[in-house]
Every structure is written in C-alpha cells, then in structure tokens.
Design a protein that fits this description.
Number of helices: 1
Structural class: mainly alpha
Oligomer: single chain
Largest sheet: none
Shape: extended
Strand content: under 5%
C-alpha cells in the first residue's frame, strides 16, 4: 500500500485467487534475488513491480523485454 487512503471508505479489500497469490510469491522470490544483486543500491518501496533496484517502474519504461511481462 502506498500512502494513506483519503478516508476509511477509500480503503478496499479485494479477493485474490490462488493462482494470483502463487504468481505474487514467485515474483517476491525473484525480487529477493534482485535485492541481493543490487546490494546497497536497493530501494525498498514494497512494490510488486519494480525496477531491478527497487523503485517504481514508470509506464514509459515498460516493454516486452521485461521478464515479468513475458508469457
């Protein structure tokens, strides 16, 4: 979660299926390796989709060569 919600009604809980949870777990494992490789350069922003050093991936930076976008 990034930042606080505007108010209590802005906070939502959404259901996530088992397959999506497995994909999240796989991504977290890959990020652990990226975190180790980045060393002191890693910025922990608690993101699922991040650059190899931790910051937010900007939409203009996304393309089909990104490993998380491959099928």
């Amino acid at each position: 979660r990034r930042g606080n919600a505007k108010n209590e009604r802005s906070t939502r809980t959404i259901p996530i299926d088992e397959e999506t949870m497995r994909l999240f777990a796989t991504r977290r494992a890959a990020q652990a390796a990226e975190r180790l490789a980045a060393g002191e350069s890693w910025e922990d922003n608690d993101l699922i989709v991040a650059t190899r050093t931790g910051p937010l991936v900007l939409p203009r930076s996304c393309d089909a060569t990104e490993p998380w976008k491959r099928s």
